[in-house]
Amino acid sequence: MTNDQGILVEGLVRTFKGDITAVAGIDLEVTPGEIYGFLGPNGAGKSTTVHMLTTLLPPTAGRARVAGYDVATHGADVRRNVGAALQEAALDAFLTGREHMDLQAGLNGLSKSERARRGTALLDRVGLTDAADRKVGGYSGGMKRRLDLAMALVHGPSILFLDEPTTGLDPQSRSALWDEVQRLATDEGVTVFLTTQYLEEADVLADRVGIIDRGHIVAEGTPAVLKREIGGDTVEAVPADPHDTDRAAAVLARFGEPAAHSPKGVAVRTRHGAEQLADIVRALDDEGVAVGSLQVHSPSLDDVFLAKTGRSLEGAGEAEADPGEPIPA
Amino acid sequence: MTSTLGQVGLIARRSARRTLRQPALIVPSIVFPLFLLAVNASGLSAATKIPGFPADSYLDFGITVCFMQGALFSSITAGTEIATDIGTGFLNRLQLTPLRRVAILVGQMTGATIVALLGAVTYLTVGVLAGVDVKSGIGGALVLVLYAVFTAVAFAGIGATLGARTGSAEAVQGVFPLMFTVFFLSSMNVPRNLIGVHWFRTVATWNPVSYLVEGMRSLVITGWDATALLRGLGVGVVILVLSFWAASRALATRMART
After folding, report:
1. Which residue of A has its CA nearest to B10?
2. Is residue B49 included in any domain, yes or no?
3. pLDDT band at A316 (very low <50, low <70, confident <90, very high)
4. The dihedral of CA A270, A276, A278, A281: what is its sign?
5. Which residues constitute the domain of residue B219?
6. Mean pLDDT of B17-32
7. Mean pLDDT value of segment A262-291
8. Which of the listed CATH numbers 3.40.50.300, 3.40.190.120, 3.30.460.10, 3.40.50.1970 matches domain A7-227?
9. Which residues on A lie below 8 Å from B7 (Cβ)?
10. Where are the domains of chain A?
11. B48 within some domain
12. Residues B29-71: pLDDT tens digits?
């Protein structure tokens, strides 16, 4: 195994009591300064992977090196080099933002003066200067996430783990957090391992994406390459009369393979959707199918997930129970 | 890297801040025992007329109950605080730092110690104002407060064990009635030699709480009784060592970091 600055994972497995396999032998590599998006539905194994890579959970099998250190045998060295904002923004409602920073910095070995300086600078960077001396119990969800991020950065880690950092945030807070993550990677060269169940987040932020489903990585690459592998655009037609759905599907089938569609529509994936649009309209017209709406869209990561797993990412996790509190096997 | 003592200081400061910012945690632990003392002192005053009762005033005899209940509240506080940190994920945050397990355990006891100290000083002050005569004098009163805090910390170890093992504040609080019962099956309300029911006297004799109570009580109603004091402190040390050992084990299981 090489890659002494980023993350290198080989055959990583984690099982829990009851024969539950949360992570089923994954391989991945994240290069220094890269933003790696780990995309998957609830219960896919994202958080378990993060817990293993941040040393909070021993792997059942396989190996992982983070910042050049084996997570199973050199936990303390790994922790010194990583920062993590885990799924729940674990904060103390009775402490202020500044007190949180002081505690985290102190436990990471910073001197008193350095703690104050670093804490103030990071609170300022995440836009919490005005709220720094207020108790966290009164913070909004976005403020808590930003404080969580600031705490993860207090000891200057070279690798940052963000476990679903924007879940539950409003669009404005989400966008602000994306900007900060992007800046960290671009300006400071921080390697970011980001788990998310939001397609847009992975698409916007990640240099490369790994898609995990039921403990297996089913696809990996840059968002552009993954989407290109799917091939072509999706053309979706919604018949004006719902009774015409089957006839519309038959017409569209002449132009490509069936694709994911909205509940009232039919869709096909075609090589050149925009160019074929006129032909599709003419064919539908010839069959006497009145169209309520017609859309062409480029492949999304959801299409990639659908192609690899046969299911749509949206809501794919609902049927799968999260193992919840890790119970060592 | 911050020294273990430095880490204890950081965790202790957080624990103190948390506790002092939650009046709901402190006030009941002070008011409830004093309320019970008032009820007992008026309702059980006739007990002092029983031949062989060791005090002339039930207030002198019963004030020890407050200190023991304070210990119980401290135990619940310690357990609830650790369980809350597990439930909210704060323990995971701490685990990601170079923090040592012993620093978490010792530092987290600060909140429970504050609850115990505030309680002990208040019980004694209110008791003296109400007429309690501490036979061992001012020095004895000081030892009484320290003894009460020491007992509370020993029981806080039991709370911490429950908190670390279950990870549930509700589960810790659910044990409160059981511990309350154990406390009452001791010589807390009646001297052992005056317990008429055989099984009750046997249970009270085997119950270590009796010896803690008797050591503490001796400072108020007897004066300086080395035997009672040392026996009580000995029992306290055993409870302290066992409870902290169990809490450390439970925390080690909970903190599975590599």
Report:
1. A103
2. no
3. low
4. negative
5. 4-42+54-254
6. 92
7. 85
8. 3.40.50.300
9. 107
10. 7-227, 232-298
11. no
12. 999 999 999 998 888 888 888 988 999 899 999 999 999 999 9
How far, in Å, CA of B210 to CA of A22, rounded?
50
- The pLDDT of residue B43 is 86
Best probe of the B interface among A92, A112, A136, A164, by most B CBs < 10 A, is A92
Task: Give the 3-state DSSP-derived string for B55-98, with helices as H, strands as E and coil as C.
Answer: CCCHHHHHHHHHHHHHHHHHHHHHHHHHHHHHHHCHHHHHHCCC
In this complex, the residue of B1, B10, B258 whose CB is nearest that of residue A103 is B10
Q: In Å, how far is B113's CA from the nearest CA of chain A? A: 18
Q: Which residue has the higher pLDDT, B258 or A284?
A: A284
| B10, B92, B256: residue with CB nearest A107 | B10
Structure confidence at residue A218 as a pLDDT band (50, 70, 90): very high
Closest chain A residue by Cα to residue B95: A56
For residue A187, how many other CB atoms are within 10 A of its CB?
8
Question: Does any CB of chain A come closer than 8 Å to the CB of residue B28?
Answer: no
Find the residue in B nearest to A111 (Cα).
B2
Question: Most distant CA pair in chain A: distance in Å?
Answer: 78
State residue A317's pLDDT score: 54
Residues 6+ positions from A98 with CB-CB distance below 8 Å: A119, A120, A123, A132, A133
Q: Cα–Cα distances in Å, from A21 out to A27, A310, B160, B201?
A: 16, 21, 32, 55
| Domain contains B47 | no
Q: How far is the C-alpha of A142 from the C-alpha of A169, rounded, in Å?
A: 6
The yes-or-no answer to whether A7-227 and A232-298 have a common fold is no
Tell whether B102 is covered by a domain.
Answer: yes
CATH class of A232-298: alpha beta
Closest Cβ opposite residue A103 in set B14, B22, B92 = B14
Contact criterion met (CB < 8 Å) for B93 and A86: yes
Q: What is the DSSP letter of A135?
A: B
Query: How confident is the model over B76-127, as pLDDT tens digits?
Result: 999 999 999 999 999 999 999 999 989 999 999 998 999 999 999 999 999 9
User: How close, in Å, is residue A29 to chain B by CA atoms?
Assistant: 21
Q: Which residues from B are below 8 Å from A79, CB to CB?
A: 96-98, 257
pLDDT tens digits along A150-206: 999 999 999 999 999 888 888 888 888 899 999 999 999 999 999 988 888 888 899
